[in-house]
């Protein structure tokens, strides 16, 4: 019998401090630049103040990119532009500094952490700190079989919780969350379609490396078949992740809800993280208050998921590569919002310019002094 009770997260997660947010709004009213003139930067600064429970808001000084990695056997159906089982190559390129996320992270001075949950490679081929949370080697082909056993799904979810605790305990003050996967967008499409009650064609995109029309039709068919397997287990989030998710998606879901428990803000990258966030919302309805949507990747499933969670993307550059790259592009915007909220001076009091208006009034009939 499992000791993991997902209902506990609902009680553990609090919303960002509403009183502090009102204080941040009041402070913004007093600053020299009129409220509203900075657009969404005003809202971002106030949200961050509430998340930190601090006015003025503190700068984001210790951000981190966390990438969960895994292979999905559904990629064997030709639903991805990359060959099945090749996610480990992407991980090595991330670690070698040769992927977009690596370049951006280097430029911004942000460390990148990769967590292998289900890569289709020998664990000895990767650093020990990358593979220590691995649950299995590749996820099952979700159109015809479960991605994980129930025990593996729980282990992956717990691994995500543990990684969130490790980051919070180490002082990380904001996480850019992403995935490194092959076949992951197909699993994400199934989760989004199931949780939003829509058809496969509505959520099927062309992935990080655009696939052709035939591959898109294969992907749509795979999502449709997996969707039939997902619907009977919609009421149980762990069973849903086991049936049609995967170890990397289960771990990301655990990470997201535990980050909310630990009051650690998270920037969501693309469609895969959006799908995990949607599952996380089902687990704990307050959790999305701790997340930001980085960008609109152009993936229809991502748009559907973010709309369901009422999360509006900060950017719209059409970045589909995944791996946290789009999330990192949004990080300077969040840091700029924090700096503006904290460092813009407040207006001087007008009272100093109106000397005499605050004098004690004379009593009736009292004569003016000569």
Number of helices: 15
Can you give the mean pLDDT?
92
Largest sheet, spatial ordering of strands: 2-1-3-4-5
Number of strands: 5
Low-confidence stretches: 351-360
Output the radius of gyration: 24 Å
Main pleated sheet: 5 strands, parallel
| Class from secondary-structure proportions | alpha/beta
Bulk shape: globular
Distance between the termini: 93 Å
Helix content: 40-55%
Give the helices and strands as they follow along the chain: HHHEHHEHHEHHHHHEHEHH
What share of the residues does DSSP label as strand, in percent? 5-15%
Feature tags:
370 residues; alpha/beta; five-stranded parallel β-sheet; 15 helices; 47% helix; globular
Secondary-structure map with pairings?
Blueprint: H1 8-12, H2 18-30, H3 40-52, E1 63-71, H4 87-95, H5 100-108, E2 112-118, H6 128-131, H7 150-169, E3 174-182, H8 184-196, H9 200-203, H10 213-230, H11 237-244, H12 247-261, E4 266-268, H13 271-283, E5 291-293, H14 300-309, H15 325-343
Parallel strand pairs: 1-2, 1-3, 3-4, 4-5
């Amino acid at each position: 019998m499992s000791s993991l009770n997902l209902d506990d997260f609902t009680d553990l997660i609090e919303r960002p401090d509403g009183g502090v947010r009102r204080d941040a709004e009041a402070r913004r009213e007093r600053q020299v630049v009129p409220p509203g003139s900075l657009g969404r930067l005003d809202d971002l600064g106030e949200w961050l103040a509430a998340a930190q429970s601090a006015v003025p808001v503190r700068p984001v000084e210790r951000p981190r990119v966390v990438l969960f990695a895994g292979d999905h056997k559904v990629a064997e159906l030709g639903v991805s532009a990359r060959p099945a089982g090749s996610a480990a190559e992407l991980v090595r390129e991330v670690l070698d500094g040769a992927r977009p996320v690596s370049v951006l992270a280097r430029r911004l001075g942000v460390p990148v952490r990769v967590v292998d949950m289900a890569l289709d490679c020998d664990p000895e081929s990767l650093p020990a700190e990358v593979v220590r949370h691995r649950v299995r080697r590749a996820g099952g082909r979700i159109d015809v079989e479960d991605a994980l056993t129930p025990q593996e799904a729980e282990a992956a979810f717990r691994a995500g919780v543990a990684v969130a605790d490790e980051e919070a305990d180490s002082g990380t003050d904001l996480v850019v969350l992403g995935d490194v996967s092959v076949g992951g967008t197909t699993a994400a499409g199934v989760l989004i379609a199931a949780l939003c009650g829509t058809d496969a064609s509505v959520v099927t995109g062309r992935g990080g490396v655009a696939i052709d029309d035939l591959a898109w039709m294969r992907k749509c068919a795979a999502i449709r078949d997996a969707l039939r397997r997902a619907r009977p287990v919609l009421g149980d989030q762990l069973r849903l992740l086991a049936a049609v998710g995967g170890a990397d998606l289960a771990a990301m879901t655990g990470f997201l809800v535990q980050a909310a428990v630990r009051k650690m803000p998270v920037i969501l990258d693309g469609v895969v993280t959006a799908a995990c966030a949607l599952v996380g919302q089902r687990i704990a309805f307050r959790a999305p208050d701790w997340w930001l949507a980085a960008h609109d990747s152009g993936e229809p499933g991502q748009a559907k998921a973010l709309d369901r969670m009422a999360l509006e993307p900060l950017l719209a550059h059409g970045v589909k590569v995944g791996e946290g790259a789009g999330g990192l592009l949004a990080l300077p915007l969040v840091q700029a919002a924090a700096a503006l909220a904290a460092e813009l001076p407040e207006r001087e009091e007008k009272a100093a310019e109106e000397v005499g208006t605050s004098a004690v009034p004379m009593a009736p009939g009292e004569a003016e002094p000569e």
